[in-house]
Amino acid sequence: MSQEDPAGYPHLPYGAPYGEQPPPQYGYGYGPPPRRDEGPQTSAIVAVVLNFLSLASCCNVFGLPGGILATVALTRARERPASARSLLLWSWVLFGCGLVLNVALFLFLGLTGRLDD
């Protein structure tokens, strides 16, 4: 009493033992999700926002060149992703250097007592 299922599985009657069945093949219903390879575009958007936010809020002196590099990388993300990744790397390096410089400056000012006033 074995009938074929549209997906290629044998139809098992109620109460039949399970046994080993192969995984379903794609063809009916939903298939695997399409691959979303957006390249460096998402990282460029985050780098632009964080660099300009750090420039405005923390006076990060490296935020302006980092933001400019990230903006250029965002415009190049579709045509030349390798060049955009290189620019993004330098943008993140500038962001990190500015962040470390700000933390070191506040630690120095705090430890020497210049922030006590």
TrEMBL record:
<feature type="transmembrane region" description="Helical">
    <location>
        <begin position="87"/>
        <end position="111"/>
    </location>
</feature>
<keyword id="KW-1133">Transmembrane helix</keyword>
<feature type="region of interest" description="Disordered">
    <location>
        <begin position="1"/>
        <end position="39"/>
    </location>
</feature>
<protein>
    <recommendedName>
        <fullName>DUF4190 domain-containing protein</fullName>
    </recommendedName>
</protein>
<keyword id="KW-0812">Transmembrane</keyword>
<keyword id="KW-0472">Membrane</keyword>
<feature type="transmembrane region" description="Helical">
    <location>
        <begin position="44"/>
        <end position="75"/>
    </location>
</feature>
